[in-house]
Every structure is written in structure tokens, then in C-alpha cells.
């Protein structure tokens, strides 16, 4: 399977994550307007990417019963498969600058936690799953 598009998506997502991290470090909690466009782009891009992985890639690999790729895809789906729902809940909760201003510390904490989970998933997919998927 050709994994290039998945890898390119990861690079693009990680670039947005890095910009958001810089914004979080630089912007005061009471000024989220500059952060929102990047955050919305990330959520949009990530939502599509996770849907393709969760609804196509992982099930396709799991159909290769008892192969190393199938076993790893099943394990990853159990361990990191809830990220899409977490992203949706985060995007709903902090959809506007007003939402962020209402709970600035909770926003920063949730955003950092979501970014950490995302980076963990990407790293694990790149190091472990994608090489196996590329062989099928």
C-alpha cells in the first residue's frame, strides 16, 4: 500500500501543531483570535485524516487477518482510536474566542493534552504501522 499521502498529511499536521504551540507560548490567554484560524485548520485537516485512517486504513489492515500489520492495526485502534472523538469534543467546546476566554487555562491544558496524544499517535504510526502497511 502506498503510504505517501498519509505521511504527507502527517507532515502538514505537525507543521500546524508547531505553529499552534508557538501561538500558545506567545499569546496571552485573553487574546485567542490569532490562534483560532490555525486551530480551525488543524481540526479540519485532522478530522479528515483521522476519518480516512479510522474508516479505511485501519479496517483494511485488520482484514489481513493474523498478519503483523493486522495485529498492530487492531492494537493501535484500541489504544489511539478515540482521538477523533476527543478532537470533535474539543472543537465543539472551544469553537470561538469567547469559549476560550471563558476557560483559558482549561483550553490550554486540553489543547496541550490533545496535541500530545496526536503527536504520540503520529509517531507510533510512522515508526511502527506505516512501514508494515507499506509492505502489503
Automatic annotation (TrEMBL):
Pfam families per the UniProt record, alphabetical: Hemerythrin (PF01814)
Residue ranges annotated for the Hemerythrin-like domain, each copy included: 5-133
Domain of life: Bacteria
Protein name: Hemerythrin domain-containing protein
Amino acid at each position: 500500500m502506498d503510504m505517501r499521502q498519509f505521511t504527507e498529511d502527517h507532515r502538514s499536521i505537525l507543521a500546524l501543531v508547531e505553529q499552534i504551540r508557538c501561538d500558545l507560548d506567545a499569546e496571552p490567554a485573553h487574546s485567542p483570535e490569532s490562534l483560532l484560524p490555525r486551530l480551525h485548520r488543524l481540526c479540519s485537516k485532522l478530522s479528515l485524516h483521522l476519518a480516512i485512517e479510522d474508516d479505511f486504513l485501519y479496517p483494511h489492515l485488520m482484514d489481513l487477518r493474523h498478519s503483523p500489520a493486522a495485529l498492530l492495526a487492531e492494537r493501535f485502534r484500541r489504544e489511539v482510536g478515540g482521538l477523533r472523538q476527543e478532537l470533535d469534543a474539543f472543537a465543539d467546546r472551544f469553537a470561538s474566542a469567547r469559549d476560550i476566554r471563558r476557560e483559558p487555562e482549561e483550553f490550554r491544558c486540553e489543547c496541550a493534552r490533545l496535541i500530545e496524544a496526536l503527536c504520540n499517535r503520529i509517531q507510533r504510526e510512522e515508526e511502527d504501522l506505516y512501514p508494515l502497511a507499506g509492505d502489503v
